[in-house]
Fold this sequence. Notes:
This protein is of the alpha+beta class. It has 10 helices and 13 strands. Strand 7 (209-216) and strand 8 form a beta hairpin.
Amino acid sequence: MKLHGVEKVVRRSIKKVGQYTFHQVHRAQARQVLRLLQKKYGPPDPANLKLADTYARDVFGDAKYAPWLRVYAAFSGTFKEGWIPDNYYGGVVVPSMKGGYGRISNLKPMSRVIFGCDAFPDLAYFANGLFFTDRNLVVREQEIEHVVFRECDKIVFKLDGSAQGKGIHFFDRESFDCGLIKSLGNGVIQKFIVQHPLLSTFAPNSVATLRLTTAVDNLGRTSLRAAFLRLGRARHTHIRIDDEICVPVDLVTGELAREGFLTDWGATEEHPDSKVRFAGLKMPAFNDCVDTVLQLHSKVPFARCIGWDVTVDSDGKVQVMEWNGEHNDVKFSEATQGPCFSDLKWELLNASPL
């Protein structure tokens, strides 16, 4: 009995350390962004920063939620009630509105099982020592090459839990290596997508992705909350978080904003490599993209907020490349398009916060 009590104390202590570290990391990140914004655009209005501090204490119950609110206010040049701090989202909203269900999205071979949708470019999977098709038929190792190159000449292998451009590997017929894939770990083999010509004008070597954020309200209704286009650089084969360009997209029309933003939050009216301007352009098949993710989210309503990475191929078809049911990015959308979730009353959640 005493040992059980000691274990409980140890677990509580570990949890407290984790909570402290989590918020310290977010505090440091937010302060760095605030310094970048000040360097580029000048000092933020002290009145807006004060409103952010007050709002964090009065609405979210703790000053530790102020740093991201300060970033949103400095970026926007004003303060808006209803903003969700990114550390509040990760520490309170995610465990309260997703729990363990959101983590399913890390297991890439589960996507077809869950959604049963051909919008995923999945060809095959490797998990726990087995190769199997997108229809869950186990395939012998010596046959998998034929399976994945039956309809394409280039494939992408993505590890479970891969994100931010990490854990992604490209193969063609000559370089394909079953042994290498097995050594890398569990994941999905997807066809290499030839993107829509408009998207290719920005950076032809990396596939542009449209990040759509959807949420389910307390009546079970699914809706689009945010949208932005993620663009890679000319020197890379895929989008990398350390040098991507993010362009807000109108939630109704699919039109790109006049300005996109670099990783240092600096504004740009054109892609830095191709010099293609954003103004006047519209995301191809935008309505189809939105309809697709709303339908998919209705199949997993228990993960109440999901970030989807989709693109449109050269035939104009929607391709769902990733879905993130855990701590999907909300800070960029909150700063550029928010408040995105104010009607959901997430500030009232009575979770066991981080």
